[in-house]
Automatic annotation (TrEMBL):
InterPro entries: GlpE_sulfurtransferase, Rhodanese-like_dom, Rhodanese-like_dom_sf. Gene3D superfamilies: Rhodanese-like domain. It holds the Pfam family Rhodanese. One of its GO terms (molecular function) is transferase activity. Keywords: Transferase. PANTHER family: FAD-DEPENDENT OXIDOREDUCTASE, PYRIDINE NUCLEOTIDE-DISULPHIDE OXIDOREDUCTASE. This is Rhodanese-related sulfurtransferase. It comes from Pricia antarctica. The lineage of its organism: Bacteria, Pseudomonadati, Bacteroidota, Flavobacteriia, Flavobacteriales. Residues 133-225 form the Rhodanese domain. It comes from the Bacteria.
Length: 226
């Protein structure tokens, strides 16, 4: 569903309409007639703003509350209120220029994961991952190689999520392993954890780092080539 506000730059009602859409958690974009004369020609502007849904005028001027409620009812999943996916995206934050500490983040890819991969499995953050590493305990990179961009958390071992059940004998028999992937939008490590549990692997030997490479890099933590 594409929601568009078409308005003149001097329209006094546009900010109010934006506030209504924001309050309803409805994603939208704004096109000004001054910058897009083709919209003026297509919709024959007589009122400003126009609320356009999937290229059809839903309201001229401020919409009735029933229109907003109908739009809200069509949103069934959080993914539908996210920024639309880019055609060419990148899963891992990329360095900007040569200055360290500046990265570009793509917010459009993947699907948002729950904070818990499974009910009996504990979720950890960066401090726990660091302490785990300093104790020499196992950290598993559950990403497939073609999604890893050749970088990983230092000290981690790569076992792709779709191979973990077959390779359970490579996991530590005594200590819990931390599993991670590319971050809150990436399902690889949560899928791996669910597969392990289904195969009978003990939940108390599984820890889930939901932040993954996304949070690890954006927090300026060290990485290594994989």
């Amino acid at each position: 569903m594409e929601i568009l506000i078409a308005a003149t730059k001097t329209c006094q009602h546009r900010p109010s309409l934006e506030k209504v859409l924001q309050g309803a958690w409805l994603p939208y974009k704004v096109n000004y007639f001054e910058d897009h004369p083709e919209i003026f020609e297509k919709y024959q502007l007589k009122h400003s703003p126009l609320l356009i849904i999937d290229e059809k005028v839903a309201s001229a001027g401020m919409p009735e509350i029933d229109i907003i409620n109908d739009l809200k009812a069509k949103i069934r999943d959080i993914s539908e209120i996210r920024t639309p996916k880019r055609v060419k995206n990148h899963m891992i934050p990329k360095n900007i220029g040569t200055e360290p500490g500046l990265v570009e983040v793509d917010t459009t890819w993947g699907s948002i994961q729950s904070i818990k991969a499974a009910r009996p499995v504990h979720t950890v953050g960066e401090l726990e991952v660091y302490q785990h590493h300093m104790k020499g305990l196992p950290i598993i990179d559950a990403r497939k190689p073609d999604t890893a961009d050749c970088v990983t958390i230092p000290g981690s071992k790569n076992i792709p999520y779709d191979e973990l059940v077959e390779r359970m004998d490579e996991l530590d028999e005594n200590d819990p392993s931390i599993f991670f992937c590319n971050g809150p939008q990436c399902p690889q490590s949560s899928t791996a954890i669910k597969n392990l549990l289904d195969a009978g692997y003990p939940a108390d030997r599984i820890l889930y780092y939901r932040g993954g490479m996304h949070d690890w890099i954006t927090l300026g933590l060290p990485i290594q080539k994989s």
